[in-house]
Design a protein that fits this description.
Layout: H1 2-33, H2 40-69, E1 79-82, H3 83-100, E2 104-107, E3 116-119, H4 121-137, E4 144-152, E5 156-163, H5 184-189, H6 197-207, E6 211-217, E7 221-229
Parallel strand pairs: 2-4
Antiparallel strand pairs: 1-3, 4-5, 5-7, 6-7
Helix pairs in contact: 1-2, 3-4, 4-6
Length: about 230
């Protein structure tokens, strides 16, 4: 019975997060269809809003698909990977979004040169993209993000991703990796997250025999620490 109740609760969360942007898109298209707006600039504005809402829907669906795909471990083809390649690609993907908020990302490739891990490139890239994008979304205007790598005990590669953002309240810190969970500050500041992000990241890292931890102070910032087995 407990599992059924939990599944129903999770489905309700998904339904709510899908319905809100979908309803907004329908309303915007209805306004355009009926010709209530004839100013070209206003029409363009409505189209942009509809596109952004649609992109949110796509992001939610992608998160759900990724999470369900993780259930089938046979889909996760593994190989020897250069960690620096993954982090460099993630940096190049996220940096344009950071620039829009005047956030600087500091990443020295030298700190992860010749560091190898055994895993799936696509899923690890997805994990780092998620963490670094969170550091952008929950950061402050003109904030900073630092990505640091170092070896530990000759067995682990440690990646620290720190931001100068809004931080996480102490009562929320233990729930950040829980599926469908978002802290109160995140709910106030961000429109569109279904709460799958960090739970998905944790599952990916766990499937790579690694770990992820968070340290945060409200209004100061957050550091996520990812540890992966080092492959020589």
């Amino acid at each position: 019975m407990a599992n059924i109740e939990e599944n129903v609760k999770n489905l309700a969360v998904i339904a709510h997060d899908l319905k809100a942007p979908l309803s907004a898109v329908v309303d915007l298209l209805h306004v355009l269809e009926k010709g209530y707006v004839d100013d070209p600039e206003k029409v363009r504005e409505l189209i942009v809003r509809a596109r952004k809402k649609s992109e949110r829907l796509i992001k939610i669906v992608e998160d759900i698909l990724d999470y369900t795909l993780l259930e089938n471990k046979s889909q996760m083809k593994r190989e020897r990977l250069k960690l620096c390649d993954i982090l460099t690609e993630s940096y190049s993907i996220i940096e344009p979004y950071a620039k829009q908020k005047n956030i600087s990302i500091h990443f020295s490739q030298k700190t992860c040169e010749e560091k190898y891990v055994f895993g799936n490139y696509t899923f690890l890239l997805r994990a780092f993209n998620n963490v670094i994008m969170n550091a952008v979304k929950y950061n402050k205007e003109s904030g900073r993000i630092d990505i640091r790598c170092f070896e530990k005990f000759g067995k682990l590669i440690v990646v620290e991703i720190s931001d100068t953002g809004i931080g996480i309240a102490p009562e929320d810190i233990n729930r950040v990796f829980t599926i469908f969970s978002r802290g109160k500050e995140a709910r106030k500041n961000i429109d569109g997250s279904i709460g799958l992000g960090l739970s998905l990241v944790k599952q990916i890292i766990k499937d790579h025999e690694g770990s992820i931890d968070v340290d945060s102070t409200v209004d100061v910032g957050t550091t996520l620490t990812i540890k992966l087995p080092l492959m020589n």
